[in-house]
Design brief:
single chain, about 775 residues, mainly beta, four-stranded antiparallel sheet, about 45% strand
């Protein structure tokens, strides 16, 4: 083989392994730390958390997530249970959707989710009897035939066959039992007509017989029932006290002949002889002991130990003297206020602002993602953050990518450098002011809502509801403040410093206030969108502003409660004193004016490497529109994509990869986009996957380009097979020639040139047909 070709093969075989995520692929970034249900499925321990479903494989100690990308039909799991004989995990969602999760497939049963019912449709618990699953629901009992994978029956066991909330069920080999809001009912399992409510008998001889019972289990030949903070057992024809004075019991679960009772403060393990095998009221980790338990679910295995879920600690396994917390790596919280990208690092601010996201008092913390690795800046790592709250924005120093500031809606500004805490700024060491001077807790009322850098390295920040709502810190550390008369005591939530150093301040009342480069001039600006096609003139006052961004041409884009407004030449403001915005109009080829996202709340705007706009909305998902907004390129919702929610809070794009991160009210998910930031020169140009194997049917991506690169792809003989223009610093090819046919096996040359033809480069690609 030719030595040069051999060298090319080695190079591209190695480089081809570096890029696993395909363009158009989705990936979730969720917190799996808050866990609330655990069950055993052979060697796997399945756990439900706020972020979704994951499992720990005891055979190889691996952790893996199970998501909609793996075939699950929904998001937000209420409970799970595993049927050993059929090897199926039944998943019940908060919205009453149901999945049967087999090893290699998922069967969705959505009948209950879709059914119009005036009663509570919540699925509280799951009981397996043979090949049937009995679901305890807010209206009664739902029976699923697992062999046929369909709903078999619905039992309404309330008065006169009405609705009755059922919270748990059990089977003792003869009778089915149902714990309800009015006591416990039983029915002979062999009865041919359990649909008839008359075949369900109320148990009258148990203490508190007519009250709500929450949990049932059959263990050691006894039926055990939970009422409030106490338990009763039934054996030999009578009810007896079992356990008393539990603090908020949360679950009973029988696995491996052991009964495990969970509560907010302790866990009881009862063996097959009905003796207390263990009482756990703390988890002893290697570096600390956690005494404040919040256990929601647990079971015990003689071989693998105790498995417990905790609202704050994750999935806990205790099999030696020490406990271990297990959960997939991810962010600490699923609540996100804003995302920010710099140098391919994603910063996540999880705080909140009263009245904006209805989320307050989130402990001060920042989460950073780089190369799939998370770094946390919380009070655990930095004691200086103890007691601090609500970080809502992050900004990185343009002159030092390791140096960043975090804005808090409660405690001012925090400074970090080289992963170390540097300083905390309030009225003691800066020009920031507190909302409540001399108040009970003035240190908690330094409300910084916006933060940004100008081109000189000066940090600018907004200080809400005080006399001087704009402050700055120069690169040498000098602070200053600015009295903007119209904004005294206003709440300001966003700040954008434009390329020409103008400060665009978003005011809570709905308009913007603009401050010039050196803060010598400032002016309020009512946002009014203007349209004129020669026949009609339309002026539209835009209401509350929810988001702001500057595109690559220096245009200012505003997301409002009724759509999008754009200032195309914002610098003209200083010449005229007032300028109109425009509303991008979708081109639908009917000659009419169709304002982009008219009457839609646009909560997030992000500009990609090709100057296209990603627009997040409240209730309508995410849109990708063309550079000027006249063409809708993509529209993602929960109905047509793995998007976690249609309510979008923030969007950020990794500049080097084009990965689009979308923060929803249910957490973060990403979409691998097709546009990256172009460089000034061609640098490390490569194509992937390389080689393109015969079974690959995705796009081939060419990276490391300058903006708007002209590409021509030829075979080794120089015959043109494809040409295109890059989106920012990235181009794609579907592997087909000009006639639409997949190209033949061989080496292909990719010729790259900038728009002026001054910068050029060539790279190679091996294609296997």
């Amino acid at each position: 083989m030719n030595k040069n070709l051999l060298a090319l093969l080695v190079l591209i075989l190695v480089s081809g392994q570096l890029f696993a995520q395909k363009m158009g692929q989705w990936k979730d970034y969720l917190s799996y730390k808050n866990c609330y249900k655990v069950t055993q499925a052979g060697d796997k321990i399945y756990c439900v958390s706020d972020g979704g479903l994951f499992y720990f494989d005891t055979s190889d100690n691996s952790v893996a997530k199970v998501t909609r990308l793996d075939g699950l039909s929904d998001f937000g799991i209420k409970t799970i249970a595993y049927q050993n004989d059929l090897n199926v995990l039944l998943i019940a969602y908060n919205n009453s959707n149901i999945d049967l999760f087999f090893e290699n497939r998922v069967v969705n049963i959505s009948d209950l989710k879709r059914k119009m019912l005036s009663a509570d449709k919540t699925i509280y618990n799951i009981l397996f009897v043979g090949n049937e699953a009995y679901l305890s629901c807010g209206f009664g009992i739902l029976v699923i035939n697992l062999d046929k994978q369909e709903i078999k029956d619905t039992y309404y066991i309330g008065e006169d066959g009405g609705f009755l909330s059922v919270y748990d069920m059990e089977y003792d080999g003869e009778y089915l039992y149902a714990a309800t809001e009015t006591g416990i009912y039983k029915a002979d399992y062999s009865s041919p007509n359990l649909i008839d409510f008359k075949n369900w008998t109320h148990i009258d001889d148990i203490p508190n017989a007519d009250s709500k019972f929450s949990h049932l289990e059959f263990h050691a030949n006894q039926l055990i029932a939970c009422f409030q903070d106490r338990f009763y057992s039934y054996s030999n024809g009578s009810w007896n006290n079992y356990y008393r004075n539990f603090d908020s019991p949360t679950e009973m679960q029988v696995q491996n002949n052991y009964l495990t009772i969970s509560s907010k403060t302790k866990i009881y393990i009862v063996d097959e002889n009905n003796q207390t095998a263990a009482e756990i009221n703390a988890f002893a980790f290697q570096d600390n002991t956690e005494n404040n338990l919040s256990t929601l679910s647990a079971f015990f295995s003689p071989t693998t130990g105790l498995w417990a879920t905790d609202e704050n600690l994750g999935l806990i396994n205790t099999k030696t003297d020490f406990s271990e917390a297990i959960y997939p790596e991810g962010p600490i919280y699923n609540d996100v206020y804003s995302l920010y990208e710099n140098n391919n690092n994603l910063y996540v601010a999880p705080g909140g602002v009263t009245g904006i996201w209805n989320k307050t008092d989130r402990p001060a913390g920042i989460m950073r993602l780089n190369n799939d690795q998370w770094t946390y800046f919380t009070e655990k790592e930095f004691p200086e953050l103890e007691g601090k709250k609500d970080v809502i924005k992050v900004i990185v120093d343009p002159n030092n990518p390791e140096h960043f500031y975090a804005a808090s809606w409660a405690n001012g500004i925090f400074e970090f450098n080289n992963n170390q805490f540097v300083d905390h700024f309030d009225d003691g060491n800066s020009t920031l002011e507190t909302v409540l001077p001399g108040g009970t807790h003035p240190e908690e009322y330094f409300r910084v809502g916006g933060i940004d850098f100008d081109s000189r390295g000066t940090l600018w920040a907004t200080n809400s509801e005080v006399a001087n709502v704009l402050v700055s810190r120069s690169s040498n550390g000098d602070w200053d403040s600015y009295n903007l008369t119209e904004l005294i005591n206003e709440r300001v939530t966003h700040l954008l410093v434009s390329k020409n150093n103008d400060k665009w301040i978003v005011v809570n009342s709905g308009n913007v206030h603009v401050v010039n480069d050196d803060a010598s001039e400032d002016t309020p600006l009512s946002v009014i969108a203007y349209f004129n096609n020669g026949d009609v003139e339309i002026k539209t006052p835009m209401s509350e502003i929810l988001s702001i961004a500057e595109d690559k041409d220096g245009e200012i884009w505003l997301g409002t409660t009724i759509g999008v407004a754009v200032y195309s030449n914002p610098h003209r403001l200083w010449d005229t004193g007032f300028i109109y915005a425009s509303q991008p109009s979708l081109e639908l080829n009917d000659g009419l004016f169709h304002p982009l996202l008219q009457n839609t709340r646009v909560t997030a705007i992000c500009v990609d490497g090709a100057n296209r706009k990603w627009l997040g909305t409240e209730g309508s998902g995410v849109y990708l529109v063309s550079e000027n907004g006249d063409t809708e390129l993509q529209h993602f919702t929960t109905e047509n994509s793995p998007l976690l929610s249609n309510n979008i809070r923030s969007i950020a794009i990794l500049s080097k990869t084009g990965e689009v991160f979308i923060a929803t009210d249910k957490g973060i998910i990403s979409y691998m986009g097709d546009a990256t930031e172009g460089g000034g020169v061609f640098e490390d140009v490569y194509a992937y996957p390389n080689p393109v194997r015969e079974d690959y049917d995705g796009f081939i991506v060419i990276e490391g380009l300058v903006n708007d690169t002209d590409l021509k792809i030829t075979d080794i003989s120089g015959n043109l097979v494809y040409s295109t223009t890059s989106l920012g610093g990235q181009a794609t090819w579907d592997g087909k020639n000009l006639n639409g046919n997949r190209v033949k096996t061989g080496v292909y040359l990719i010729f790259c040139s900038d728009q002026e033809g001054e910068e050029t480069c060539i790279t190679k690609l091996l294609f296997i047909h």
